[in-house]
Amino acid sequence: MTRGAPATLEVRGVHKQYGGKSVLSSLSFDVARGEFLALLGPSGAGKTTLVRCIAGLTVPERGEIRLDGVNVLELKGRERRRIAVVFQQFNLVPRLSALQNVLAGRLGHVPSWRGVLRRFTRKDQLLALECLDRVGLIDRARQRADTLSGGQQQRVAIARALAQQPDVIVADEPIASLDPQSSAGILELLRDISRNDGVALVCSLHQLEFARAYADRIAGMTAGAVVVDVPAGQFDDSVATRIYGLGLASAQA
Ligand SMILES: Nc1ncnc2c1ncn2[C@@H]1O[C@H](COP(=O)(O)OP(=O)(O)O)[C@@H](O)[C@H]1O
Ligand SMILES: [Mg+2]
User: Fold this and answer.
1) 110 φ, ψ to 5°?
2) Overall domain count for the chain
3) Which atom of ligand 1 lies closest to the CA of 173?
4) Ligand 1, closest atom to CA 58?
């Protein structure tokens, strides 16, 4: 537990609407370095919108998201690397190798891919190889991303996030497209990165059991608000009812 540790990521009174409809309302919570926060909530609760706001991909109408006291929207250039994003659909460049995809994590922007390798220093290339090794895929470095399995592609995406040397990783349902065994491997990896590298990790999940097994804390969202924020060990049937409006057994069905 890291409760009491200084917050790295602060979400403060975030409000977001689409077409006059509130999607996030007065959302506030903190995440510390080394802490794994799982976001749970039914479909449409606003998890993806929140992840996009943290990543600076969507701008809230009110409120602020701060990284070590700095509004994430003010992170410019190289500073933007401090927040890495992992997506459900991996978002790799299919025709590029695993290594080239990881190297993309060293860029502050989406590059033009022509001659992409020449733009990287030897140091960057070694770092990218280390990141691939960390996720168990050093032997796949030269393999095209679209020939890897889903679980392997998500590992490459995590290696790309690692290559950013981030302070925060936000992951939007990173295991929703994977089988249970690959899912467990991915969450173990994310937990290990959060703990050992001191990364503040926010990860939306559909599965309660995975959240309980891997997260330090669980925040439950309903209709754009955080209705529950508890240590994972305290997550029980009554808490699930507050998020999903039904019992744990039915929520998992
Ligand atoms: N770009 C958008 N334009 C309009 N409505 C959106 C947009 N993105 C999300 N929404 C709406 O916001 C609500 C929350 O969506 P989302 O953040 O995707 O929830 P979740 O990830 O929890 O399923 C939904 O009602 C969705 O239809
Ligand atoms: Mg979503």
Assistant:
1) -75, 120
2) 1
3) 21
4) 1
